[in-house]
Specification:
The complex is a heterodimer. Chain A is of the alpha+beta class. Chain A has helices at 3-16, 36-39, 88-97, 161-169, 185-203, 206-225, 230-248, 254-281, 285-292, and strands spanning 20-21, 48-57, 73-82, 108-112, 115-117, 122-131, 134-145, 148-149, 155-160. In chain A, strands 1, 2, 3, 4, 5, 6, 7, 8 and 9 form a nine-stranded mixed beta sheet that branches. Chain B has five domains: 4-66 and 126-211, Alpha-Beta Plaits (2-Layer Sandwich); 69-122, no CATH class; 218-335, no CATH class; 355-565, Hypothetical protein af1432; 575-689, Isoleucyl-tRNA Synthetase, Domain 1, CATH 1.10.730. The mean pLDDT of chain B is 93. The chains are: A alpha+beta, B alpha+beta.
Chain lengths: 293, 693
Amino acid sequence: MTFQEIIFHLNKYWHERGAIIVQPYDLETGAGTFNPATFLRSLGPEPWSSAYVEPSRRPTDGRYGENPNRLQLFYQYQVLIKPAPFDIQEQYLNSISTMGIDFSEHDVRFVHDDWESPTLGATGLGWEVWLDGMEITQFTYFQQVGGIELDPIPVELTYGLERIAMFIQQKENVFDVMWNEELTYGDIRQREEYEFSRYNFEVADIKRHIMLFDEFEKETFNILENGLVLPAYDMVIKCSHIFNIIDARGAISVTERAYYIQRVRNLAKAVAKAYVESREKLGFPLLKKRNKS
Amino acid sequence: MEEYAHLLCEIGVEELPHSISFRVARDFKESFTKLLDENRIDHGEVRLFSTPRRFSILIQNVSQYQSDYEEEKRGPSFDKAYSDGRPTRALLGFCRANGIEPEEVVFKEVRGSRYIFAVKKIKGDKTVKLLPDILETVLNGMRFPKTMRWEKSNFSFIRPIRWILFKYGDEVVGYDKVGLSSSEYTFGHRVYSSEAIKVENVEDYEELLNKACVVADRDKRLNLIREGVERITKELNTRVPEGAEVLFEVNTDLTELPNPVLCSFEEEYLTLPPEVLISEMVEHQRYFPLMDSEGKITNNFIVISNIKDNTKSKAGFERVLRARLNDGKFFYEEDKKRNFFDYLEDLKAVSFHPELGSMEEKVRRVEKISGVISDYLKLEDEVKRDILEAATLCKNDLVTQMVGEFPNLQGIMGYYYALESGHGERVAKAIKDHYRPRFSGDRTPEDIVGSVVGIADRLDSIIGIFSTGYEPKGSRDPYGLRRAVFSIIRIIVDKKINLSLSNLLSEVVGIYPLVKDKENFKKKLEDFFKTRIRSVFQELGFDYDEIDAAMANVLDDIYEAYRRVEALHRFRSREGFKDLFIAFKRMANIVKEGGECDESGRVNPDLFVQQEEKALYNYYLEKKSYIKRAIDSKDYEEVYEILGSFKSYVDDFFDNVLVMEDNRNLRCNRIYLLREIVESFSGIIDFSKLVVS
């Protein structure tokens, strides 16, 4: 299976189980969780089921394209289903075994790992899924998002696409993964890893980013004050990414770091609250949709 | 139906966190059994099963009925129940309320008075009717470090419950909370048994699971792992290193069908420090490292798999480890290309605290404090040189790639890199050791070099953070300042370090630029230390009054204060000392009250009237110089031995002499006597602070 076939497979698999296949968000996100299809849709009583690829940026993990296992940008395959189905573990395992992975030959394990995103004010309980000792998925029952207790509880599945591809194709170096029959992951992305590593670690202007953070933070509140939620959430994503770059530049101390995280969290919380209120005003439309069907 | 039947209750869950799954199972068993007992349901042996995906109990011979019992209710007192031998209204009312006739009441004595009692025989209920409530109470009453919700009713539990097998004899016990209904079905191993398994006869439960590839008995799994690992280690003439022992239980709680698989990695990775290899295998992958007979790590390791056929998975287990070791090796080689000393320059770019500057600035302060301590301890030049060298290098590994990647190797990598760059073993070891003790049961640094740097490093954090105006309050202590004091004291006590913290603070607070009012700042710090030292001493097992009585001037010498408290603690439990301390506390109290006597008054032997006061005085005179000598030489053992020898004299004195005599001269002379004795022990113990009963 090539890298893109894995994506096709998962799209088809979750499409058949009723998920909306949404597209990657058009802003720099740190994880699939940041996509509004997860962060915002997990809030409130409306049912939701979506699946998508999310390019996820982790500036501090960049290694100039030289490390066989580390990337400053990688692809998550993200599934969010609310409420969490009773047989979600089986559904998940089935999504893996239908890629041709035989669990009587490969040891699959759910290893305790509770998830927390301090910037999103989000927590969940769950596992790392290990396949022959390698973590391939984060499996989480969200409990809180944007500081809001969730009800009903969504489940989030975050597949590490590169790792799954390395496993299936038996590659020791991510850049050797076959993207399609012809080109490798390295052909497509290695230069990008180098340039962004240099930018994130060496070139990004610290002062300008600190200023940008302040500006986007102000803009979040400006938008919220004007009664809009979705554009305000974009600003939260921007702040989070800018913070990640400031962090990668090693420009802040441990305490300052905590302070920045707190600022992003405060924005996320304000937006989460406004989002639930706005959906309520609309009468939680997806709730009615389900009742009709 | 027979009178007894077996009961089986299995809670099927999505994988429990391995660190507490067994505790969860045990709690379940205990509280279930306790509730049966409380409900007077007779039962036999209780067996517990525990795997990552289930916990269950099989209880032999559970009675079909609760045992009958009598309920007693107390009514009015006998006097109020009858008037002229006839039932009063109070008695009649009581009988009516309890549905009995006045003739049926019984009389019982309660604290000397007779009362009326109604005794009701209550017939035991059917067990099967009570079981759902019992399970409900058990599940609701279980406590976990963290809980989650996952279904409609928002029930909170440690992980989602996915099935409940609840069967009593041939009957399924109905239970349909937590988003599902109980049944007589269980589930086997995920891979080898996909269909639900009907448990016809509850006694076959373990065997049915065995057939479905689940070893439900935890001890049996643990043994399978132990035997499997032992078989391999014997064959290879290797052993599992000490720190990896914990993996036996960890893997027991991570598998339902454990299978040891022998794997290996390429020999080239053996050039990595053993700590790196072990940390990768044990902490991250839960693999068993293997050591040869000489204690060297080998390139073999054991993985506990959860499936039978591992011909293909073996390569996967190895690949994961190889990827991590490859990272490690790359960083290790890169880091060694530079002289270890040169990393100090990089510390300038790492912030310690926004108001306290960089890590490099911190290191400079640690050097300075280390130097001052070395001088106080009058250490040899050679040792002091090592201390200063270690202080300079102690944080350098934080900016190496290896520690950046594997933060738990801080200190350890410093050790290897320092040796690599030609620094001495003692210096290298101190770099590693200065973080000790890292947790409460941890060892302190091996020698004085690491100890001094360790104290200086923590002292700098405490003084520095304090100088920013921050004080730990309540349970909030993000900088770990309390832990830091604890560690300092552990080192001082372990290494028998005599050090005046008070003088040390005076000498070093000047190097903190944020400190404006030195005296005031020092006082605040000292108060913090005193409070913290008290609670550390309490953590070490001493009573608060012992600490108060013996920790005078603690900041002049923490170690001596510790020894005084320790000696007091030890002697206090000795035969006869309890009474002795009561007597001395009485003396101290009398002296404190003063009795309207002259504060500088001295004993006049001519004023003694009674034999016992003379005897006490003479004995005191005889011992006075010995007490002083013992105190001066800090021989607290001897001080308390002497104190103990006062017993008969003190007892005789208090038995026969009235101190608070009307005659002022006689009275004050006695008080002067007591004062001299009590004061001769001052600095060792303040008797008035002891709490005696």
